[in-house]
């Protein structure tokens, strides 16, 4: 068995949005799936602690785990067309998410389905409930996934790249919807994304992953204002400035190389081969530990930080 994510530590408070960021292959989606133990028969979750409301998720029996999924913690997946059942009407899929956890039937269930669809912005919930997924736009399909996620009134929602396939206008609408639900329902949100602009605007705290490890975490404004890890600094430096992008001038500061696959993780710091600040000691085993430098701030790098060029 191969380890693909290790030494990942973070917590989510009530009503808080925590963003998990990093390049493709950093372990963002695997981390969110592991929280709900959705890695499949070949996946195994090992942790010193994985708790939800002081209960150990790792120790839950199958029935209790099924109850947790949807009712306590829900998930919004990336692609509606592969996550929704193409031969079930939208209303039936939302109703299924409700009846798995609550004994609602008939008119009471239909009213609840319409209420949930209205909450996620369906202009005509009763008509929308009769539609099949292929009859809806991409934005409405994404809203169906959100409706299914919140249907049983969970406390925590894991959103795995929920706006990847949407145009900027629809992205903003979906993210505004999640913000509104957080405010109204006191939902906690884990937002998996590669979009640092979204993180800067929406997240209270950010967790930066690289090659299956947390390399930095802290309040979003602090991390963006004074990043401590070379990888975080490189990600921020790679963002296009609006003026440069609109005028077609300026070059992006790309990070050389790629995220190493788990079978090629180096013995020392996993970012060392791509880091312009790496020293010889960075490549030796064991690699650096995640160190808490201040309340809420942690970094996995012993090298003194230099200003961004």
Structural account:
By secondary structure, this protein is of the alpha/beta class. The chain has a domain at 222-309. It has helices at 28-35, 62-71, 80-83, 90-99, 106-119, 125-129, 138-150, 168-185, 196-202, 220-225, 230-237, 242-247; strands at 17-21, 51-52, 55-56, 73-76, 156-160, 188-192, 205-210, 213-219, 291-294, 297-299. The strands form two sheets. The chain has an eight-stranded mixed β-sheet with strand order 4-5-6-1-7-8-10-9, sandwiched between helices. It has a two-stranded antiparallel sheet with strand order 2-3. Strand 5 (156-160), helix 8 and strand 6 (188-192) form a beta-alpha-beta unit. It starts with 16 loop residues before the first strand and ends in a 10-residue tail after the last strand.
Q: Can you describe this structure in just a few lines?
A:
The protein is of the alpha/beta class and 309 residues long.
Number of strands: 10
Largest sheet, in brief, is: 8 strands, mixed
Which runs of at least 5 residues are low in confidence (pLDDT < 50)?
none
Order of helices and strands: EHEEHEHHHHHEHEHEEHHHEE
Return the structural class: alpha/beta
Which bin fits the share of residues in helices? 25-40%
Q: How many H/I helical runs?
A: 12
Radius of gyration: 21 Å
Distance between the termini: 41 Å
Q: What spatial order of strands do you see in the largest sheet?
A: 4-5-6-1-7-8-10-9
